[in-house]
Amino acid sequence: MTRVAFELQIAPDRVEEYVRRHSPVRAEMLAEIAAAGRRNYSLFLGADGRLFGYYETDDDDAAQAYLAASPVAAAWEASMAEFFVGLHGRPDQAATPLTEVFHLHDQLTAATADSTTTDTDTDTEGTAS
């Protein structure tokens, strides 16, 4: 599973309309997002129109390709493009990706594995052969 985060900038004077269009998103677009393999998808709105998005997928390239070929997604993205500042291309294809630098579950899992390995190594070293 891949976690994907991205950001976009909404024109500050268009934020209210952007929120209105997402309350709710059209059912056929929701179905296309799910069919593309994206799940746990959220959008967060920050100060002055900064938009942060997050979703999970098993194959982001396949999800991107599915949505790029979808007439439903193309129509939705065309209708939403007017809200974004400094964007060249469809919002779902041209958003600025963010690099993940921390994920709690991954680090806890690694720490547990390291602890188990260290404990096993210590026990082995302390045992006479």
From TrEMBL:
Superkingdom to which the source organism belongs: Bacteria
GO MF terms held by the record: L-rhamnose mutarotase activity
Keyword Transferase included in the entry's annotation: no
Isomerase in keyword set: yes
Lineage: Bacteria, Bacillati, Actinomycetota, Actinomycetes, Micrococcales
Annotated keywords: Isomerase
A biological process term (GO) from this entry: rhamnose catabolic process
SUPFAM superfamilies tied to this protein: Dimeric alpha+beta barrel
EC number(s) given by UniProt: 5.1.3.32
Matching Pfam families: rhaM (PF05336)
Protein name from the UniProt record: L-rhamnose mutarotase
Gene transcribed to yield this protein: rhaM_2
Leader sequence residues: none
